[in-house]
Amino acid sequence: MDNSTATQKPLASTIAIRARNLNLWYGSFQALFDINLEIKQGMITSMIGPSGCGKSTILRSVDRINERLGYVRIEGAIEVLDQNIYAPEVELAQLRKQVGMVFQRPNPLPISLFDNIIFGHRIHRAPNEKYSKQDESDIVEAALRKVLLWDKVKDRLHSKATVGLSLEEQQKLCIARLLPVKPTVLLMDEPCSALDPKGTAAVEELIWELRGEYSILLVTHNMAQARRASEECIFLLMGRVVEHRETDQMFMSPSCQETANYIEGRYG
Amino acid sequence: MFAAKPVNLRNQQVEGLFRLLFGIMMVVLIVPVLMIIVMLVYKGGPAFSWNFLFTFPTDGMTAGGVFPALLGTIWLVVVSLLASVPLGVAAAIYLSEYAQQEHWLTRVINLATINLAGVPSIVHALFGLGAFVLFLKFGTSILAASLTLAVMTLPVVIVASWESLQAVPRAFREACWNMGATRWQTIRQVVLPNALTGILTGIILQVSRAAGETAPIMFTGAVFFLPFLPAGVFDQTMALALHLYTISTQVPNVPESLPFGVALLLVGMVLIMNSTAIMFRMYLRGKKKW
Ligand SMILES: Nc1ncnc2c1ncn2[C@@H]1O[C@H](COP(=O)(O)OP(=O)(O)OP(=O)(O)O)[C@@H](O)[C@H]1O
Ligand SMILES: [Mg+2]
Q1: ∠ at Cα A39 (A37, A42), nearest 5°?
Q2: CA dist., res. A44 & res. A204, Å (int)
Q3: pLDDT digits (tens, 9 = 90+) for B195-212
């Protein structure tokens, strides 16, 4: 890295996710072509593009969940906090501690709310570490407060998380359960697309609150959301990065014709 | 404007016809079952008593109770479950959670398992005789007979468990994996607890099947008559299903109520176990929501 970055603010200068010449195949179908990206730490970066352009594929390569399918092949590298996550010594559990994923449909686990939040923490704590009930309660409370859910659910922490919560609340819960293990990167794959407008606004607000502390990569189909809720924006088309700029600039004066077409097409 | 047109009338007629047809089919199915039960209760009921349940057969099996056969059936079922349940559930977990779902070998094994469930029980009997009685030298014993029953029930235990595991939504697994949970942590904490009802039901249904089979135990460990109770798994035993066969066909001058009593006992045990399974399932279903 060059020296000029050292003089800038530390958060804005470091790179959370870097893709280098990333190519990805599902069997013989190539889904990603020469992806080069630098996603800045502490920022919200949105990723837009037509259906099937590879947005989810990129997210799934960052927490390496794609490899589960035996027929996926990857070339190039992805670095999270300057570490190549495809290096042989990388332990998936440790990677996924740093990188949290939020899905399109909220998927709280069919266990109690409390257990949902503490689940990741229990998985990642060392065998000799002891946590008292009180410690765990504190962790759960902090996470739920962070997502503005504490007041709503504090009286039913021990009932099933899948029962009696609205989709908005479930999605907030799914964000909250990532926080106790202190991730640095949050990947969100259309986190609001199952929600009504009010829920969308609430979750967007929450995502905005989380910026700075976490680096967020947000996939969305909603132009207005990308514009409102992100600082930088990536436009993908058919597995290629077409444009990656500050969101405002991208929407005001896109430098590529394809980007302009896409943005305008959506607005009519 | 909304009055029936000819086409509606015709549709209604066809609708009525099929409704009647399926209704008749159902009655045709239900009546024999009811008749069997009524007949069993009517003819076998008088044989029932504490003595019948808890004493040995007497007078060359033409009188007395069925206690050793009842106990023997329980022995066989319990030992066979001890073998088939851990094995079957483990195999199902492997197939459903660890094996690569698209791999041809996984598919072949799945298919083979399903087909194995359809192999006639007499074939299992011959296998048990060769494998457990002769090759492994268990002799004709509770162990050999139970293992034969286990081999017979294993495919169904696997298939039932596999289906219950697959019924747990994928999203739960993905959520766990994305938080860094290993497969085992995911299975242990999320998948298995939610699949348990289905697995248990599958197992209980197999209990009733194992209790009712005659062929697999006939050559491998069950005998017509024993004047004492088995003391361990290397002893032979009597069993209800075989006892029924014996007193209905092999022993002269048995009063009619006796075989019907044994049949009633066997059917009763199976019905009780099956309905327990169903009620258990409904109870847990009611509690489970996602
Ligand atoms: N598991 C898979 N097996 C084979 N092909 C896949 C798989 N997942 C995605 N693809 C293909 O890869 C391409 C990119 O898919 P991806 O899901 O990343 O798109 P996306 O941009 O997220 O689309 P959407 O906006 O609809 O979610 C698509 O053409 C898709 O058909
Ligand atoms: Mg997608």
Answers
A1: 175
A2: 11
A3: 988 898 888 888 888 888
B4 within domain boundaries: no
Mutate to test the interface with A, among B103, B105, B178 (most CBs of A within 10 A): B178
- In a domain? residue B28: no
* CATH code, domain carrying B70: 1.10.3720.10
For residue B118, what are the domain limits? Answer: 50-286
Tell me whether residue A158 is in a domain. yes
Q: Which of B178, B190, B193 sits opposite A96 (nearest CB)?
A: B178
Within-domain flag for B39? no
* DSSP H or E segment with residue B136: none
A176 within a domain of the structure (yes/no): yes
A38, A52, B9, B11 from B3: Cα distances, Å: 69, 50, 10, 14
CA of A264 to the centre of ligand 1 (A): 23
- Is A5 inside any structural domain? no
In the A/B pair of chains, how many CB contacts fall below 8 A? 67
For testing the chain A interface, which of B101, B179, B197 should be mutated: the one with the most A CBs within 10 Å? B179
Predicted ipTM of the assembly: 0.83
A residues 12-71 near B, CB within 8 Å? Answer: 63, 65, 68, 70-71
Pocket of ligand 1 (CB under 6 A): A 26, 29, 31, 49, 51-57, 69
Q: Is residue B194 part of a domain?
A: yes
Using the mean position of ligand 2's atoms as its centre, give its distance from the Cα of residue A56 in Å.
Answer: 4
Distance A189 CA to ligand 1 centre (A): 12
Q: In one letter, which amino acid is A195?
A: L
CATH number of the domain bearing residue A155: 3.40.50.300
Range of the domain at A116: 15-263
Total domains in the fold of chain B: 1
- List chain B pLDDT tens, one digit each, 290 residues: 888 888 999 999 999 999 999 999 999 999 998 999 999 999 888 888 888 888 888 887 778 888 888 999 999 999 999 999 999 999 999 999 998 887 889 889 988 888 888 889 899 999 999 999 999 988 889 999 999 999 999 999 999 999 999 999 999 999 999 998 999 999 999 999 889 888 988 888 888 888 888 889 988 988 888 888 888 888 888 898 898 998 888 888 888 888 899 999 999 988 888 888 888 878 877 766 55
Sheet (strand A215-219) strand order: A99-102, A185-189, A215-219, A44-48, A232-237, A240-246
* pLDDT tens readout for residues B116-130: 888 898 999 999 999
The total number of structural domains that make up chain A:
1
Specify the ligand 1 atom closest to the Cα of A66.
1
